[in-house]
Specification:
With 602 residues, the chain is mainly alpha-helical. Helices cover 66% and strands 1% of the residues.
Length: 602
């Protein structure tokens, strides 16, 4: 076992012991503690837990990797996810909390006075959460695959066991305090290598300023240097965009508006005591999120620059050790097309990987090429590029590429796991809550006891872990892409019914139900068609209006609005008491904190 593995195992084991210890210490003993942490979390702690819940494997592992290769086009993730949290915190969360229901299906069922609406919302919540959580399991598998030198699926299984233990045992109370620790781990793990590398490349310890500073006394800034290198190799300039305007807009909007419908984030506003505490915790969460999100563009630029400098035009013998080690995971590879023995990194796909395929097969083939490289069975495509690098490894490999100390490499691995597991736990709780509370308790068996409801929630969480693990082993794309699909599904299903439920007294149950069904079916069908059934057809020429599967949630959302509004015009208006309910939600009543009256038996 080498030094990197020893450091990684040591740090990961210590953090896992910490997480499990917190889960045992704060385990839930009632449905109130399991679902909303007993509403006793401080605003600062809730802000940290919300940030950890929000910054999933997509934010920590994948987002910077996609920006490193997409350049300016990758800003869609930054704009969508940060803007989405602001939208949720300022526009929707206060109203939802005042309504007093701690899940989206609960809100939909009561606001639209319909058990059918609640069931449709439960199905949407479970579908969205499963899509989201499989991206987290995929991220866990990638981390373990590299640093334990095992196959990705085995890494996913390890992650399943860990998250099952503290999510099922601790509930929201255990998850919340575990996520506080996980935020500290992940933000430290993200910032330490960023500061080191910023000092190396630009002499500036502030990464947000470093990637605009001068690059190693060359007279060029880091970004200018990256632009010129990219163009020399046949790529577009790093700071130039290639996405169509409509696709960029739709992806950004889907990510932003989908945030408003993500159940695992909304429930966070119920874990504090008062409305004021909810607002304060939203401020803290935004501050903690901003630390990582403002650093990610710098990490992306540094990683791309170091990748080109350390690999391009090098012989396999000269290739750094990190490249040869990552080869074993199947997430990087080299195919010598011209027989010169050198790694040629150019524009184009190096192998005939289908759209959405993210690794080489077979991953652990023992055959070696002429120069000692891993053999690649996929035939080459008609272009000069010989190098495959999976986007999801860039943050994890960044410290190795930059030659940082081994303890930093181990720390980053622990941070990636913290980001993935924190969000996975929150999503598993949403799935278990949707099943036990919204579906069984509120719809089919209202006399269910507190103990029975808690048991059902834990069984549902266990089942969800297994399903999420399967999709983590068989993902339909990169981590950030998979997560983007979840946001699109949330935008097309929940955002319209929440907005209209708060701000429109005329919206009725018929319109809401039809809108949700049309929105999520359209979006899911489009994603499944292009990402699972016909990935080879997933090109701008074949997309509807040139909109990618990541952005189609925006179209689904518009369809949801249109269908809901039209049907509500031709069907009976809601009962008078619904209008009074909406009025109470929208008019400030400082003396009444309806959200403090949570009763798990209601």
């Amino acid at each position: 076992m080498d030094s990197i593995q020893i450091w990684t195992l040591g740090i990961v084991v210590v953090t896992f012991i910490l997480y499990i210890g917190i889960a045992v210490w704060s385990r839930a003993s009632s449905t109130s503690e399991f679902f909303v942490a007993g509403k006793g979390v401080s605003p600062l702690a809730n802000g940290m837990a919300t940030a950890a819940d929000w910054m999933s494997a997509a934010s920590f592992i994948s987002m910077a990797g996609i920006i490193a290769f997409a350049g300016r086009d990758g800003s869609r993730y930054l704009m969508g996810w940060t803007g989405g949290y602001v939208l949720l915190a300022l526009l929707l969360a206060p109203y939802l909390r005042k309504f007093g229901k701690f899940t989206v299906p609960d809100f939909v069922g009561d606001r639209y006075y319909s058990g059918t609406a609640r069931v449709v919302a439960v199905i949407c919540a479970i579908f969205i959460s499963f899509t989201y959580v499989c991206g987290q399991m995929q991220g866990v598998g990638i981390v373990f695959s590299r640093f334990l030198e095992i196959e990705v699926w085995k890494g996913v299984v390890i992650g399943m066991l860990i998250v099952f233990f503290y999510a099922v045992l601790g509930g929201m109370k255990g998850i919340t305090y575990t996520q506080v620790a996980q935020y500290c781990v992940l933000i430290f793990a993200f910032m330490v290598p960023a500061i080191f590398i910023s000092l190396q490349l630009a002499g500036n310890p502030v990464p947000q300023l470093g990637f605009g500073s001068e690059y190693q006394d060359t007279g060029q800034s880091v970004l200018d240097r990256l632009d010129s290198l990219s163009e020399e190799l046949g790529f577009a300039a790093y700071t130039a965009g290639s996405m169509s305007t409509i696709d960029l807009f739709c992806v950004t909007a889907a990510l932003m508006l989908g945030t408003a419908g993500l159940p695992h984030v909304i429930v966070r506003f119920y874990t504090v005591k008062t409305m004021r505490d909810a607002r304060v915790s939203a401020f803290w969460a935004l501050l903690f999120i901003a630390i990582l999100y403002t650093t990610a563009p710098a990490v992306s630029a540094f990683a791309r620059l170091n990748l080109i400098d350390t690999l391009n035009e090098k012989s396999y013998a000269e290739a750094p050790e990190w490249f040869k080690t990552w080869e074993n995971t199947g997430l990087v590879g080299w195919l010598d097309k011209n027989g010169d023995g050198k790694i040629q990194y150019r524009d184009g796909a190096p192998f005939s990987l289908m759209e959405g395929q993210s690794k080489l097969e077979p991953v652990f083939a023992e055959e070696r090429g002429e120069f000692g490289q891993r053999m690649v069975t996929n035939p080459p495509t008609d272009n000069p590029n010989e190098l495959l690098v999976n986007r999801d490894i860039m943050v994890l490999a960044n410290p190795e590429i930059a030659g940082l100390p081994n303890w930093v490499i181990g720390l980053v691995a622990a941070g990636g796991l913290a980001a993935a597991l924190s969000t996975a736990a929150g999503l598993l709780l949403v799935i278990s809550t949707a099943f036990a509370h919204d579906l069984v308790k509120r719809t089919f068996k209202p006399d269910l006891s507190d103990r029975q409801e808690l048991g059902l929630a834990r069984i549902a969480a266990g089942f969800a872990v297994v399903v999420a693990g399967y999709f983590g082993m068989n993902p339909p794309g990169f981590v950030a892409q998979v997560v983007a699909f979840a946001f699109g599904l949330a935008a097309s299903s929940f955002f319209p019914v929440i907005i209209m439920g708060i701000f429109s007294k005329r919206m009725n149950k018929q319109g809401a139900i039809a809108g949700m069904i049309v929105g999520i079916l359209f979006t899911a069908t489009y994603i499944i068609w292009f990402r699972l059934l016909h990935p080879e057809q997933s090109t701008p020429e074949n997309w509807l209006f040139g909109i990618s599967p990541e952005g189609i949630g925006t179209v689904g959302m518009l369809l949801n609005f249109l269908v809901a509004i039209v049907i509500s015009k031709f069907t009976p208006a809601p009962p008078a008491e619904i209008g009074e309910m909406i009025e109470r939600i929208r008019v400030p009543e400082e003396a009444i904190e309806q959200s403090d009256a949570f009763d798990p038996e209601v």
